[in-house]
């Protein structure tokens, strides 16, 4: 069950990212991020009566810390996109986000089988290949000034996964409330301090709201995966396969063409998932 929930979170994360990317073509990025984060918070509050759980103070603190890490990662990610090339920033950020939960799980004493370990290695490679829409040549041409912010952004996302995993099994979705409140306050405060408009044009509003609710749904699925007893090393790397659904949606909706590296990455991702789900 944990594996299925983690895979579902990856699919929904990718869909939310796709919607966020579409919205950013029609509205200012800071407005898209702030409004989508707030929309996710509203959706989460509506779910609390059913999935709120029984959190302890520590669960809410872990959630708040996760929200801070996620918000910082998001801000660094968009900063990296502004200064760098998407075909470099995306795969570097994704593999960094995937690697942190693996390292965190191992440091926390988790043990994984040989097949799962091989699957994790392949999944990390698949993330790079799938997200490299400019081909591997773009990665070889990457400069430190582009890679460093992307690595930092991915680290923020990875720490978000690690900290959410520290919450208790009985806490339900309550830790996400603390996470999203912190995230909304940080992003909103920075937007207001920079005196940037938070207005979203009406044609883009529905897409922004879909991105926000989708992102929150993906967070919820990941948290439920960890509470279902899933290994952090496994659930973290599976959730980080989100570029796969983003790329597939871009091909289906926007008619974007896949590069050779991306096609190979999709195949490697399938093999990786199979290996991770095999027993032993």
Overview of the molecule:
The protein is 80% helix and 0% strand. With 280 residues, the chain is mostly helical. Helix 4 (86-107) packs parallel to helix 7. The protein is globular. The longest helix has 27 residues, at 57-83. It has one domain (2-277).
Number of strands: 0
Average pLDDT confidence is 81
Strand content: under 5%
Instruction: List low-pLDDT spans.
Output: none
Which sheet architecture does the biggest sheet show?
A: none
Q: What distance separates the N and C termini?
A: 16 Å
Percent helix range: over 70%
What's the overall geometry? globular
DSSP summary: helix tally: 12
Which structural category fits the helices and strands? mainly alpha
Order of helices and strands: HHHHHHHHHHHH
User: In angstroms, what is the radius of gyration?
Assistant: 18 Å
The tally of domains stands at: 1
Family: Belongs to the EamA transporter family.
Protein name: EamA family transporter
Keywords: Membrane, Transmembrane, Transmembrane helix
Domain EamA: 2-130, 150-277
Features:
single chain, 280 residues, mainly alpha, globular
Short description:
The chain is an all-alpha fold. It has twelve helices and no strands.
Helices and strands in order:
Blueprint: H1 2-24, H2 29-51, H3 57-83, H4 86-107, H5 114-131, H6 136-140, H7 144-165, H8 174-193, H9 202-227, H10 232-239, H11 243-253, H12 260-277
